[in-house]
Protein backbone atom coordinates (compact mmCIF):
# COMPACT_ATOMS: atom_id res chain seq x y z
CA UNK A 1 0.00 0.00 0.00
CA UNK A 2 2.83 2.39 0.83
CA UNK A 3 4.58 1.61 -2.45
CA UNK A 4 1.34 2.13 -4.37
CA UNK A 5 0.80 5.42 -2.57
CA UNK A 6 4.22 6.64 -3.70
CA UNK A 7 3.47 5.58 -7.26
CA UNK A 8 0.12 7.41 -7.26
CA UNK A 9 1.72 10.59 -5.95
CA UNK A 10 4.31 10.42 -8.71
CA UNK A 11 1.58 10.09 -11.38
CA UNK A 12 -0.27 13.05 -9.86
CA UNK A 13 2.93 15.10 -9.93
CA UNK A 14 3.34 14.26 -13.64
CA UNK A 15 -0.21 15.42 -14.31
CA UNK A 16 0.42 18.67 -12.44
CA UNK A 17 3.59 19.40 -14.42
CA UNK A 18 1.57 19.11 -17.64
CA UNK A 19 -1.08 21.46 -16.23
CA UNK A 20 1.62 23.94 -15.22
CA UNK A 21 3.13 23.87 -18.71
CA UNK A 22 -0.26 24.36 -20.36
CA UNK A 23 -1.31 27.22 -18.06
CA UNK A 24 2.06 28.94 -18.56
CA UNK A 25 1.69 28.66 -22.34
CA UNK A 26 -1.81 30.18 -22.24
CA UNK A 27 -0.63 32.99 -19.97
CA UNK A 28 2.26 33.82 -22.30
CA UNK A 29 0.48 33.50 -25.65
CA UNK A 30 -3.27 33.23 -25.12
CA UNK A 31 -5.66 30.63 -26.50
CA UNK A 32 -4.52 29.39 -29.95
CA UNK A 33 -8.07 29.44 -31.33
CA UNK A 34 -9.34 32.84 -30.12
CA UNK A 35 -5.91 34.57 -30.27
CA UNK A 36 -6.79 37.20 -27.59
CA UNK A 37 -3.36 38.87 -27.87
CA UNK A 38 -3.84 39.49 -31.59
CA UNK A 39 -0.66 37.77 -32.78
CA UNK A 40 0.05 37.56 -36.52
CA UNK A 41 -1.62 34.55 -38.22
CA UNK A 42 0.61 32.60 -40.61
CA UNK A 43 0.54 29.39 -42.61
CA UNK A 44 3.09 26.68 -41.90
CA UNK A 45 4.21 26.80 -45.53
CA UNK A 46 5.49 30.36 -45.07
CA UNK A 47 8.03 29.13 -42.49
CA UNK A 48 9.32 26.08 -44.38
CA UNK A 49 12.91 25.76 -45.59
CA UNK A 50 13.31 23.52 -48.61
CA UNK A 51 10.71 20.90 -49.52
CA UNK A 52 8.45 18.78 -47.35
CA UNK A 53 9.11 15.10 -47.91
CA UNK A 54 7.96 11.65 -46.87
CA UNK A 55 10.35 9.24 -45.19
CA UNK A 56 12.32 6.19 -46.21
CA UNK A 57 10.64 2.89 -47.14
CA UNK A 58 12.33 -0.35 -46.14
CA UNK A 59 11.05 -3.91 -45.77
CA UNK A 60 11.28 -5.52 -42.35
CA UNK A 61 14.20 -7.78 -43.29
CA UNK A 62 16.25 -4.74 -44.31
CA UNK A 63 16.29 -3.31 -40.79
CA UNK A 64 19.31 -3.68 -38.56
CA UNK A 65 22.24 -1.31 -38.27
CA UNK A 66 23.47 1.66 -36.29
CA UNK A 67 21.21 4.55 -37.37
CA UNK A 68 17.80 4.91 -35.67
CA UNK A 69 14.68 5.39 -37.80
CA UNK A 70 11.76 7.33 -36.33
CA UNK A 71 8.42 5.53 -36.73
CA UNK A 72 4.91 6.89 -36.19
CA UNK A 73 4.55 5.43 -32.68
CA UNK A 74 7.50 7.53 -31.52
CA UNK A 75 5.65 10.75 -32.36
CA UNK A 76 3.08 10.20 -29.62
CA UNK A 77 5.18 10.45 -26.45
CA UNK A 78 7.26 13.21 -24.94
CA UNK A 79 7.81 16.83 -25.90
CA UNK A 80 10.58 15.76 -28.28
CA UNK A 81 11.29 12.53 -30.16
CA UNK A 82 13.09 9.78 -28.25
CA UNK A 83 15.09 7.51 -30.59
CA UNK A 84 16.56 5.29 -27.86
CA UNK A 85 14.27 2.36 -28.75
CA UNK A 86 13.87 3.03 -32.48
CA UNK A 87 14.47 0.41 -35.14
CA UNK A 88 17.79 0.88 -36.94
CA UNK A 89 19.26 0.81 -40.44
CA UNK A 90 22.63 1.06 -42.13
CA UNK A 91 21.74 3.73 -44.69
CA UNK A 92 23.65 4.79 -47.77
CA UNK A 93 25.13 8.29 -47.98
CA UNK A 94 22.35 9.23 -50.39
CA UNK A 95 19.66 8.00 -47.96
CA UNK A 96 21.23 9.98 -45.12
CA UNK A 97 21.26 13.08 -47.33
CA UNK A 98 17.61 12.65 -48.32
CA UNK A 99 16.06 11.28 -45.13
CA UNK A 100 18.47 12.43 -42.41
CA UNK A 101 16.82 14.54 -39.71
CA UNK A 102 18.22 17.85 -38.53
CA UNK A 103 17.67 19.47 -35.14
CA UNK A 104 14.33 21.28 -35.09
CA UNK A 105 12.62 19.25 -37.85
CA UNK A 106 8.93 18.68 -37.07
CA UNK A 107 7.48 15.33 -38.10
CA UNK A 108 3.80 14.70 -38.85
CA UNK A 109 1.93 11.39 -38.95
CA UNK A 110 1.00 11.00 -42.63
CA UNK A 111 -1.36 8.01 -42.38
CA UNK A 112 -3.22 6.41 -39.51
CA UNK A 113 -5.91 3.78 -38.97
CA UNK A 114 -7.16 6.04 -36.19
CA UNK A 115 -8.45 9.39 -37.48
CA UNK A 116 -7.48 11.08 -34.21
CA UNK A 117 -3.84 10.25 -34.88
CA UNK A 118 -3.61 11.82 -38.31
CA UNK A 119 -1.21 14.76 -38.54
CA UNK A 120 0.02 14.33 -34.98
CA UNK A 121 3.41 15.98 -34.59
CA UNK A 122 6.64 15.81 -32.67
CA UNK A 123 10.00 17.53 -32.99
CA UNK A 124 13.46 16.04 -33.55
CA UNK A 125 15.91 17.40 -31.00
CA UNK A 126 19.01 15.30 -31.74
CA UNK A 127 22.22 15.85 -33.67
CA UNK A 128 21.92 16.60 -37.40
CA UNK A 129 21.72 13.45 -39.58
CA UNK A 130 21.93 11.12 -36.56
CA UNK A 131 18.51 9.57 -37.37
CA UNK A 132 16.17 8.96 -40.32
CA UNK A 133 12.37 8.86 -40.55
CA UNK A 134 10.12 6.30 -42.22
CA UNK A 135 7.55 6.55 -44.99
CA UNK A 136 4.38 7.10 -42.93
CA UNK A 137 5.80 10.42 -41.72
CA UNK A 138 6.11 13.87 -43.33
CA UNK A 139 9.18 15.93 -42.39
CA UNK A 140 9.02 19.74 -42.18
CA UNK A 141 12.22 21.78 -41.86
CA UNK A 142 11.65 25.28 -40.53
CA UNK A 143 13.25 28.71 -40.71
CA UNK A 144 14.72 28.75 -37.20
CA UNK A 145 15.19 32.53 -37.30
CA UNK A 146 11.43 33.04 -37.49
CA UNK A 147 9.99 30.19 -35.43
CA UNK A 148 11.11 28.08 -32.48
CA UNK A 149 10.43 24.42 -33.27
CA UNK A 150 9.90 23.46 -29.62
CA UNK A 151 7.29 26.21 -29.26
CA UNK A 152 5.55 25.33 -32.52
CA UNK A 153 5.49 21.62 -31.75
CA UNK A 154 3.68 22.30 -28.46
CA UNK A 155 1.32 24.81 -30.08
CA UNK A 156 0.22 22.39 -32.82
CA UNK A 157 -0.85 19.84 -30.19
CA UNK A 158 -3.56 22.09 -28.72
CA UNK A 159 -7.06 20.62 -29.25
CA UNK A 160 -8.28 23.51 -31.42
CA UNK A 161 -5.38 23.18 -33.86
CA UNK A 162 -5.58 19.40 -33.77
CA UNK A 163 -9.19 19.69 -35.00
CA UNK A 164 -8.02 21.93 -37.85
CA UNK A 165 -5.38 19.40 -38.88
CA UNK A 166 -7.70 16.38 -38.60
CA UNK A 167 -10.31 18.18 -40.71
CA UNK A 168 -7.80 18.26 -43.57
CA UNK A 169 -7.46 14.45 -43.59
CA UNK A 170 -8.77 12.19 -46.34
CA UNK A 171 -10.50 9.07 -45.08
CA UNK A 172 -11.23 5.94 -47.13
CA UNK A 173 -9.86 2.75 -45.56
CA UNK A 174 -7.50 4.83 -43.41
CA UNK A 175 -6.89 8.50 -42.66
CA UNK A 176 -4.17 10.27 -44.62
CA UNK A 177 -2.93 13.83 -44.96
CA UNK A 178 -0.78 15.25 -47.74
CA UNK A 179 2.11 17.67 -47.81
CA UNK A 180 -0.02 20.45 -49.33
CA UNK A 181 -2.52 20.19 -46.47
CA UNK A 182 0.27 20.33 -43.89
CA UNK A 183 1.57 23.56 -45.46
CA UNK A 184 -1.89 25.16 -45.13
CA UNK A 185 -2.08 24.75 -41.34
CA UNK A 186 -2.69 28.20 -39.81
CA UNK A 187 -1.61 29.42 -36.37
CA UNK A 188 -0.52 32.56 -34.55
CA UNK A 189 3.15 33.55 -34.44
CA UNK A 190 4.28 35.53 -31.37
CA UNK A 191 7.67 37.30 -31.22
CA UNK A 192 10.60 34.91 -31.52
CA UNK A 193 12.14 35.96 -28.20
CA UNK A 194 8.93 35.00 -26.40
CA UNK A 195 8.91 31.63 -28.16
CA UNK A 196 12.50 31.07 -27.00
CA UNK A 197 11.55 31.82 -23.38
CA UNK A 198 8.84 29.17 -23.56
CA UNK A 199 11.37 26.64 -24.84
CA UNK A 200 13.55 27.23 -21.78
CA UNK A 201 10.58 26.68 -19.49
CA UNK A 202 9.44 23.55 -21.35
CA UNK A 203 12.89 21.99 -21.11
CA UNK A 204 12.90 22.50 -17.35
CA UNK A 205 9.49 20.86 -17.09
CA UNK A 206 10.64 17.99 -19.34
CA UNK A 207 13.68 17.35 -17.14
CA UNK A 208 11.53 17.16 -14.01
CA UNK A 209 8.99 14.96 -15.75
CA UNK A 210 11.70 12.52 -16.84
CA UNK A 211 12.75 12.15 -13.21
CA UNK A 212 9.13 11.50 -12.20
CA UNK A 213 8.67 8.94 -14.98
CA UNK A 214 11.50 6.82 -13.62
CA UNK A 215 10.87 3.42 -15.22
CA UNK A 216 13.10 1.66 -12.70
CA UNK A 217 10.84 2.62 -9.80
CA UNK A 218 7.80 1.40 -11.76
CA UNK A 219 9.52 -1.91 -12.45
CA UNK A 220 10.41 -2.25 -8.77
CA UNK A 221 6.77 -1.68 -7.80
CA UNK A 222 5.57 -4.35 -10.26
CA UNK A 223 8.17 -6.76 -8.92
CA UNK A 224 7.01 -6.04 -5.37
CA UNK A 225 3.40 -6.64 -6.41
CA UNK A 226 4.23 -10.02 -7.95
CA UNK A 227 6.10 -11.08 -4.83
CA UNK A 228 3.11 -10.07 -2.71
CA UNK A 229 0.74 -12.24 -4.76
CA UNK A 230 3.14 -15.16 -4.44
CA UNK A 231 3.22 -14.70 -0.69
CA UNK A 232 6.93 -13.94 -0.61
CA UNK A 233 6.73 -10.74 1.44
Overall description:
The structure is a single chain. By secondary structure, the protein is α+β, with helices and mostly antiparallel strands. Helices cover 39% and strands 15% of the residues. Helix 1 runs antiparallel to helix 6.
Mean pLDDT: 89
Structural class: alpha+beta
Order of helices and strands: HEEEEHEEEEEHHEEHEHH
Global morphology: globular
Q: Sheet bearing the most strands, described? A: 4 strands, antiparallel
Task: Report a brief summary of the structure.
The chain has helices spanning 2-29, 93-99, 149-155, 159-167, 179-183, 192-212, 215-229, and strands at residues 40-43, 53-54, 67-70, 87-89, 106-109, 111-112, 121-123, 132-133, 137-140, 170-171, 175-176, 186-189. The chain is α+β, with helices and mostly antiparallel strands. A 4-stranded antiparallel sheet has the order 2-9-5-7, covered by helices on one side. The protein has a 3-stranded mixed sheet with strand order 4-3-8. It has a 3-stranded antiparallel sheet with strand order 6-11-10, with no helix packed on it.
Amino acid sequence: DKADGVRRKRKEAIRLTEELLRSTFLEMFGDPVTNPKGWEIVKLGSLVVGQLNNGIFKKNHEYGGDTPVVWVKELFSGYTIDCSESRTLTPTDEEVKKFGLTKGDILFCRSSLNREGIGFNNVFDGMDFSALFECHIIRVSLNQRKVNSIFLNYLLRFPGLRKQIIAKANTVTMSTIGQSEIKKIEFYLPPKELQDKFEIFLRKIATNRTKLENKESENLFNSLLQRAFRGEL
